[in-house]
Amino acid sequence: xxxxLADFITNTPAGREADAILRSCVHCGFCNATCPTFQLLGxxxxxxxxxxxxxxxxxxxxxxxxxxxxxxxxxxxCRSCETTCPSGVRYQRLLEIGREVIEERVPRSLAARATxxxxxxxxxxxxxxxxxxxxxxxxxxxxPAVLADKLPRAAxxxxxxxxxxxGHTRRMIALAGCVQPTLTPxxxxxxxxxxxxxxxxxxxxxxxxxxxxxRYHLNAQARALDDMRQxxxxxxxxxxxxxxxxxxxxxxxxxxxxxxxxxxxxxxPAYAEKAARISAITRDACEVLAAEQGRLNELFGQTGxxxxxxxxxHSPCTLQHAQRIRGVVETLLTAAGYRLTPVPDxxxxxxxxxxxxxxxxxxxxxxxxxxLAAMAAGSPALLVTANIGCQTHLQSGSKTPVRHWIELIDExxxx
Length: 415
Hints:
EC 1.1.99.14, Fumarate Reductase Iron-sulfur Protein, Chain B, domain 2, alpha/beta
């Protein structure tokens, strides 16, 4: 596509990047066929092709309004369009550039600014988020439904103890994260128990909290980069010394973000090399287990057949579209003896998408209910996923338990 970017951006790094992305788009429209918001709304401007044109017009200096902002806000950043695009258009990066520009040019309402501020400042800080969740549980009847639905009904179960002091020669690091320790503390503990059975010690490092994804996707990129540097500082002594062989991610949303640390910090002379190294050794938990599939199968054979419980798996967008990891969790669950039920339109987003379920509750609820209906089609006993955001969002509309898939592997090995 032809471009003529305006002077304010044309000779900047972001402008050159945006120009290359825009020129790679051939306007074919294949992306709309797999875009969740286009499927719901049927509006060209609520699909990737339309949003690309809106961003192009903005970067070429044409007037932008709240309407442009609305259509960009409605994007889930699910990246389903990227896995569909035959031209390899880097839509997500173009969207990030467009959103950063429009934040400067179209002021948000006072209420919207206040909401964004609270989300940016409270959620990444565990010392604020944890008591806020407890207070919210006590005040649930007074909260708006969009917030009340996100809160667990009871205190989260930490599960069985985290194995320590086993003397394993292999060690890996897990990100504690900002939300997961409060809402689903058993996720990392279950991962530690599974890896322990495989001869790998899993540790968490103090100081490594929010990976930066939360603030980055709320258009607070500078603050997000600081979050990323803090995580790198916490991990670097273990990584640099060779005492750990890799980073294990149990939330695919965080995993997707950590894997682009090297790209996002490539212009930072103090962190570029460190960030690239961190990204290179980061693996989703399912990739770590898949590499140990032979030993896992031996362990599964020692604990019975798993009972053949029916399970529906929702693959988060950050796993299947951003990281391009498909079929791995399903293979692990099948090997463990679970029966996976079919999920129609498995490529579509559940509507969680970070803070999307709070900022766009109507669309997020429609997407959630559609996903739950698809997952229920095979009458599963359990719903499982690979990301804390998807887990809590789906659970808010489901009476069927929604769990992290690693918990099922842990229970199978402990049977």
